[in-house]
Write a structure and sequence with these properties.
107 residues, 4 helices
């Protein structure tokens, strides 16, 4: 018989964060995350499952709200028009090695 685990809000949040981190880091695929959740769920005592589900939904709702806030908070790149002409008078002059040597010896 598999070992049952106790459920707390912190335990559920930790499980979700670990799975999110594993996907972000490329350590797990979506299929592996789903399998991990199935294994985790099977370890929860049937009487504790309603509480686990409640905590899971709370964590996922908050994660979703956080992702939405991050997305909305990202700066939108502004479009810009590239200049097709260069004004050579405004470009810095690049001196050659000979010019620098001549200036050094003049000092």
């Amino acid at each position: 018989m598999p070992q049952e685990i106790s459920i707390s809000y912190q335990a559920v949040k930790s499980k979700v964060y670990k799975l999110v981190d594993a996907m972000v880091e490329g350590e797990k695929t979506p299929t592996e995350v789903q399998e991990s959740m199935r294994r985790w769920w099977s370890l929860i005592h049937p009487a504790d499952r309603p509480v686990a589900q409640k905590y899971m939904l709370m964590v996922l709702e908050r994660c979703n709200a956080t992702l939405g806030a991050i997305t909305i908070g990202l700066p939108v790149p502004k479009e810009f028009k590239a200049s097709t002409t260069l004004d050579s008078d405004k470009l810095p002059k690049i001196s050659s090695r000979n010019d620098r040597a001549a200036m050094s010896s003049a000092m």
